[in-house]
């Protein structure tokens, strides 16, 4: 591995990291900012280990999705669309695209919140500026240009939060201790699942598979792992920054508290990071929706790039319009939350199975280590999925539907074991 890495030209390595930084750009959005900063605010460094776990989970399943495309020359959406079970073809694209639409307004609002602290314009003007900039990038056929812009924004976002986290100057030994010895403080169980859920996102799996290019599996792994690890470090920096908030939560609190404690310069840095986080997500979510619609419904059409652009711009338009009208589609958000609670474990389970089929993957099947990690991670994602389904359903019905974490664990473990036995059987076939 080391010899192979030394033979790889430096420029090629940097380009690979830049290319795959789109995944980091996709999962570090306003949701990650709120969740990670809230974790730091409420529990200090106690939940830092969760971000390490979530980063590993993201690497495992994103690698499976990209490897599937590189080996089969078909993206995940196209592969799943060929299944005999037609309900999959209906529920997966509908749920994931609904999620992209529901959360797009929040992505744009995050970008506008950051921009409002940087530019002396009204909220409406900022919404239009973000919408026009995002539409211009999505409308361009030059995908490489889009990747470069997203990579640059991730760098800006990372620098902003790393600088603030460095100024906080935490005790390194305390941070390392909480990472090495995981704990779940009282009342933090759902926040743990929230940190994982904002990092391993259903549409990102289709995004990573859809953008995989004609490259070697080794090169893909290098760029993907480095970029996701850097994204995890940025998330950790956000959590560290959140320790300044002393129990407060929310984007406004994050910006305000850091500004008061560290000075106006840091407030501007956080605002810049917030803009970058919201803007990158406001591009990747519509783009992923376009790839999903193309892969499931229009992969046989010659000019399917046009389908991607039309779908992407439509999702973006709905998000901008919702922001301008100050419309909070709570029912749609709850429905998307519930549907994606089903889709996330379903898609990751499918990935686990597909990546182990010899007829499909040949010698590029998942390794034993990858399968052990997939087993452990999928069990957690099943708990997260069931929790999101219950949360979304209770919100729509106006009821208090909840289940203890232990009950969900007792349900998820047998399901994961059965799937693990099936994966072992198809590997041996």
UniProtKB/TrEMBL annotation:
Keyword Signal in annotation: no
Main location: membrane
Pfam hit, one: Nramp
Subcellular location per the Swiss-Prot or TrEMBL entry: Membrane
Gene Ontology CC terms: plasma membrane
Bilayer-crossing regions: 46-66, 87-105, 117-140, 147-169, 189-210, 222-249, 269-295, 307-325, 331-354, 366-385, 405-423
Example GO BP: iron ion transmembrane transport
GO molecular function, one term: cadmium ion transmembrane transporter activity
Key word Transport present: yes
UniProt keywords, alphabetically: Membrane, Symport, Transmembrane, Transmembrane helix, Transport
Membrane association type: Multi-pass membrane protein
Name of this protein: Nramp family divalent metal transporter
Native species: Fulvivirga sedimenti
